[in-house]
Amino acid sequence: MKVAPNKKKILVNGNKAVAWGAVTAGLNYLAHYPGSPVNFVDQEVKAINKEYDLNIIINDSLNEHVSVLAAAGASFSGARSLVVMKHVGLNIAADPLNYIGYTGVKGGMVIVVGTDPGANSSTGEEDVHWYVPQFNFPLLEPTSIQEIYTFVQEGFRISEEFEIPVMIFLPGRLCYNYSFIEVPESFEPLEKKFYFTKDREKYINVGARAVANHKKLVEKVQKISQSLQLYKRFFNPNSQFGIMTRGLAFGSTYEAIKVLGIEDEVDLLNFDLVYPASEKLVEDFFHGKNEVVFIEDQDGFLESHIKTEFFNSIQSKIYGKNIFPKWGELQYDQVLDFLASKFHKTIEKNEVSEFDQTVPERLGTFCEGCPHTASYYSIHTAIKGKDAIIGGDIGCSSLPPFRADWLLCMNAGIGISQGMAQVLDKQVVISTGGDGSFFHAGLISLLNAVHNKIDLIHIIFDNSTIAMTGHQAPPAHGSFDYHGLLKSMGVDRVIEVWTYKPDTFIKLLEYEMDKKGVRVFLVKGQCIRIPNNYIENRIKTLAPEINNDLCNGCSKCYTELACPAIINLAEDGQNLKIDLNHCVRCGTCNEVCPNGAITIHQTVTV
Ligand code: SF4
Ligand code: SF4
Ligand code: SF4
């Protein structure tokens, strides 16, 4: 007889709750691609794996497409697999996800997707709910940290019962919130007894077999809709006014109802299982309702899904997205205002509510001494006076939005620049991107440029880490042969530069701008946020200083290089100083000053 393990209380954020939920469910395999707001799940899984010696196998994937395929392979072989990515990554993973429902899974497969209403850490707030009926996977949406922990476990259970992948969507707000959860104090060691059983009817999907398997998937989802109910229902079930919610809208709605004291006047239903909605639950809820309002963020998936699936059996007036916006994060005040007006209540608000205050826009910036600061200084200096355009890409290199001329999605730098380079006669096109983005899909884009003989310059910032999402290890490190790789792809010229020597970089870039062929700059310079002896020694031994007697106010260091460690003390005009508490002594300001006004003193002799 197994003895239930003792429990301990731990404080976790949403990322950690996913990890603990998966491990508690008996996770065997994790495949992930980092991206905010779910960029720390893997780190917690790795930490638990190490602490409890669990044998969980990790695939630090280079993009979401391969992540899903690898997890499917593990799951086909009987392993419980977890896939983690952010919402935009779901676009990359969509191809295999369209067909994994056809094959079904063996070991439970849970796909956690971090969403970003309000685009707090993304280039867009795409509503990925629309993928769900296309993939035909059940979708769970937790409303609290505790629910993240339990829903991940529930996801594995549903996945194995119905042999189908289960999706879990987590908005950024929830991923970074904290709460206590109770987790086991110990885990049974996981045995690796996996086996792939050949079954061509199931795993070879083509022609009539694909159609037959698609039919089975649709029937499976209908069965889930008929047999599975996961929901929360509060207040007055006999009320004629119904409210349906999902995800974070539930908390705002519940609180607004309490604050307004309208508990007797409403019936609140939250869908924990958002797709497929339970037939019985929906029909019971609508019974006797005059009106039902949907309160949810983004495009209004739930409203659309219920209207589409149950249009024959609904007599009530239903609405939602004609009241609440499709853009941005749904705010508590919007829900409160709507319900107050609906039930003729007066709200007493503080004179200036949190949501009435306008927050000044702050542009992103690089860290002090960041290698990208020096790189962009060189690029902008080299193109001065030329009709040149710069393609940006996702990652730290895109932080200040004024450095590039476009920023869209992963690999939009090298991808978009190809079309431009092919149609533009006079303008010089230079694309940029980090090493993480290069291996995500930039590699194939660059090969495409070679294949199509497109004249372009692409700049790879090799900062030895995938910095923006939490400093994950890059695929190319140590003795990795970038030159060999790029040459074997057919790149015409590979030019390696050290970012902290802008003069050399500028001259080489100016030279290459007039040339033809596929030219790749490999810009070396390690992210200063990863432990680095070179920088640490410089901080201990050097101190740059601006001599204002020699400074002629050209502003190259302050405005063009724009290192945040260079500060202006004058309220009017310019009186520059280097803030040594933040300066990392990279030396770039000294290199760019045309008047020798920035000196680097040796403070300690080594
Ligand atoms: S040395 Fe100059 S450029 Fe480098 S971090 Fe310090 S102030 Fe900034
Ligand atoms: S984390 Fe690293 S790469 Fe990102 S801005 Fe800071 S120094 Fe630059
Ligand atoms: S680059 Fe040199 S001369 Fe120009 S503002 Fe900075 S310190 Fe002064």
Overview of this protein structure:
Helix content is 37%, strand content 19%. It is α/β, with parallel strands linked by helices and 606 residues long. The strands form 6 sheets. The chain has a 7-stranded mixed beta sheet with strand order 3-2-4-5-7-6-12, sandwiched between helices. Strands 9-11-10-13-14 form a 5-stranded mixed beta sheet, sandwiched between helices. Bound molecules: iron/sulfur cluster (3 copies). The site of one iron/sulfur cluster (SF4) has 14 residues, from helix 20. One iron/sulfur cluster (SF4) binds at residues 366-367, 370, 372, 396, 399, 463, 467, 527-529.
Quick structural gist:
This protein is α/β, with parallel strands linked by helices. It is built from 21 helices and 23 strands.
Protein topology:
Elements (H helix, E strand, L loop, with lengths): L6 E7 H11 L4 E4 L8 H12 L4 E4 L3 H13 L4 E6 H17 L5 E7 L15 H5 L3 E2 L4 H18 L3 E6 H4 L2 E7 L15 H4 L3 H21 L3 E5 L5 E5 L3 H12 L6 E5 L1 E3 L3 H8 L4 E5 L5 H10 L6 E3 L12 H11 L28 H12 L5 E4 L20 H12 L4 E7 H17 L4 E7 L19 H8 L3 E6 L3 H12 L4 E7 L8 H9 E5 L9 H6 L4 E3 L7 E3 L9 H5 L5 E5 L4
Parallel strand pairs: 2-3, 2-4, 4-5, 5-7, 6-7, 10-11, 10-13, 13-14, 15-16, 16-17, 17-19, 18-19
Antiparallel strand pairs: 1-8, 6-12, 9-11, 20-23, 21-22
Helix pairs in contact: 1-2, 1-6, 3-4, 4-9, 10-13, 14-18
The structure holds iron/sulfur cluster (3 copies).
